[in-house]
Amino acid sequence: MQNETIAVHGGYNKKEGYGSMAVPIAQTTAYAFRDSEHAANLFALKELGPIYTRLTNPTTDVLEQRFAQLEGGAAAICVASGQSAIFYAIANVAEAGDNILISDKLYGGAVTLLTHTIKRFGITAKVFRSEDASDLEEQIDDKTKAIFFESLSNPQIAIADVEKIAEIGQRNGVITICDNTVASAALFNPIKWGIDVVVHSTSKYTNGQGTAIGGIIVERDGLAEFFKENSARYAHFTEPDESYHGLVYTDVPLPNFCLRIRLALLRDIGAAQSPHNSWLLLQTIETLALRVDKHSDNTLEIAKFLESHDKVKSVNYPGLESNPGYAKAQKYFKDGKASGLISFEVESYEDAKKVIDSAKLFSVVVNIGDSKSLIVHPASTTHSQMNAQELAEAGINPTTVRLSIGLENPIDLIADLNEALN
Ligand SMILES: *Cc1c(COP(=O)(O)O)cnc(C)c1O
Prior knowledge:
single chain; 422 residues; alpha/beta; Aspartate Aminotransferase, domain 2; Aspartate Aminotransferase, domain 1; 7-stranded mixed beta sheet; 5-stranded mixed beta sheet; 16 helices; 12 strands; 36% helix; binds pyridoxal-5'-phosphate
């Protein structure tokens, strides 16, 4: 089935929802078992079914199935935010003494999580260049547990060499994890290009209206075989889990990556998504493809306007032919569309502040992927926890202004920006 069809129907059986056309919200904490044997069977995974909403929820389950189908994956698991999705994906494979390889072009929250916070858990991060992956393979060692990157990065708007990263991961038996938040499942599906695991902050384009925080992790088919082939690196999946009465994940005929997150990490750390947020995301995912198309078209128009403006030093948008990412956008993204993030450089920090403070239709907000257009100064906000060297390496300058283009008519947005720039 095509993605637009999956987005509307995937994962939902109306018969199980009292014939309700909208997916019902199971606004409940826990579920009644038929009897004590049923309860015991659920805990022993002899039967599958809901136990407690920290672990599973019928509304969330529909979203998980729908999203897995959209991304071409075998299974998905929803969590409370994009940040918790990243943390769980990493903590699922790495522990003290291990290392991970992370892209040089990442979301600010991912940078602090993966370089500072997980270091306190004994996991170290090494940085590689994701746009060409030229220094990736040489940095892999026996303790490398994951390669983490963004398909279209926030806020640098850089496109990763996904095929090369997937190939290096496969050749070395290391899990590849792609944060696909900015491209969205409507424009790009990393699993179809050989990536093992996809994470999203569903707070962004998937939600699209800035009304819910959420995260999701999707795994490709066949990871159990991958773990068995690489059992020295991924022993947690092939050896008994003491915390789950000796369960061996690769013996369970369910997609292993999400299974272990659910049984161990959601159980113990518990960043579960609320059923109400799952329901909100089920509403918005129906229009994902339409919206991302329009976000992309609007952004291209604005990029062309900015490129022609004499107060703008440079424009970074991979939908522009002049952009170094243009060929990759054409190769990877549906119809070559490049989503709604754009950044541009002005002459000075004062000029950047002036544009941000003068634009009227653009709200000063650190979010992205909203129907409302947003403007921000990454160096002093989203990336302010990074030091000068980290900022320079990530390509963020004091003169950089980032826009997240919404669904307004671009005529109005261009008029507003023109006034703010002059
Ligand atoms: C926003 C964002 C995140 C974090 O997601 P939250 O839902 O805010 O926790 C992770 N990755 C990218 C690329 C993002 O834009």
